[in-house]
Amino acid sequence: VRHYTRLSNKNFGLDTGFYPLGSCTMKYNPKINEEIARNPKMMNLHPYQPEESVQGALEMMHEVGLHLSEISGMDEVSLQPAAGSHGEMTGLMMIKAFHEKNGDFKRKNIILPDSAHGTNPSSAQVVGFNIIEIKSTPQGDVDIEALKEHLNDE
């Protein structure tokens, strides 16, 4: 038993520490989500199934959306972003739509540190922003003076 317990401790588990960079989808998922995803009524669903065969899942997603709207105070929420990069891109799309709805078309730049995750500049560029990279100091911090040089109304 000790041998197998020691081997199992070599595996990384979400209940024993943080996941490394790049696994943002898994970091904050509670174990109950895994139980629900393994339920045969959920795991055998397919995106192209006829709507009449997935009414229970659609009702559940609708109710989750209503609850999240109430909790967050927002009019609507999206359950679509399935990963951190999806959520990041969705957020950037919302920022862009907000500014454009308010007639502000000059905000075209996104400032990112050179230490940003690879999806950060990719998402910003796909959404249509220009990326301004701010170099780090030798200590690994954002160079505040370099940042100040790029602060403007764009």
From TrEMBL:
GO terms for cellular component: cytosol; glycine cleavage complex. It comes from the Eukaryota. The lineage of its organism: Eukaryota, Metazoa, Ecdysozoa, Arthropoda, Crustacea. InterPro entries: GDC_P, PyrdxlP-dep_Trfase, PyrdxlP-dep_Trfase_major. This is Glycine dehydrogenase (Aminomethyl-transferring). One of its GO terms (molecular function) is pyridoxal phosphate binding. One of its GO terms (biological process) is glycine decarboxylation via glycine cleavage system.
